Amino acid sequence: MLSRNKTIQNQYRSEYIFSPSDVNIGIAVAIDDDLIVPVIKNADRKDLVAISNEASTLIEKAKSKSLKPDDINDATFVVTNLGMFGIISFVPIVNPGQSAILSVGGLQKIPIVTDENIVIGQVIEFTLVCDHRVINGVTAATFCHEFKEVIETERENGW
């Protein structure tokens, strides 16, 4: 599961907060000079491998321009990546109807000190931007902590 805390999915809708029952993750995909956001439905019920496989399928469909309307509806949370352009860190913008967006920067090799030794480590910067009408800072920080733990655990397990 990506997060045990579903409040990260709340949405602001014309003066009230809506809590969707599904966690639907959008993936920003560049197509020519445009951007489209295919959606992984019920992502909270899938492991990272299933999410990765579905993301690959949706990205391929986006590139071949074969997405259906249901493939691009109902994102409550979006992931965007500019790492492939050499961007290390950036701050994305939350679109109306979405609760948050997570940016993924490019992989960096940096020196890391471990047990008095300096080794080359690999680091990726993530930035979470939230609609603060529905997500407070503590909830966002909790999500970031959980996300970090999941990513580190999956990496240690060879994913």
Characterise this structure.
The chain is α+β, with helices and mostly antiparallel strands and 159 residues long. Helices cover 23% and strands 29% of the residues. It is built from two helices and eleven strands, in the order ββββββαβββββα. Strands 6-3-7-8-11 form a five-stranded mixed sheet, with helices on one face. Strands 1-2 form a two-stranded antiparallel sheet. Strands 4-5 form a two-stranded antiparallel ribbon. β1 and β2 form a beta hairpin. The mean pLDDT is 87.
Topology summary:
Layout: E1 11-13, E2 16-18, E3 25-27, E4 29-31, E5 34-36, E6 39-40, H1 48-63, E7 77-81, E8 100-104, E9 108-114, E10 117-123, E11 126-130, H2 137-156
Parallel strand pairs: 3-7, 7-8
Antiparallel strand pairs: 1-2, 3-6, 4-5, 8-11, 9-10
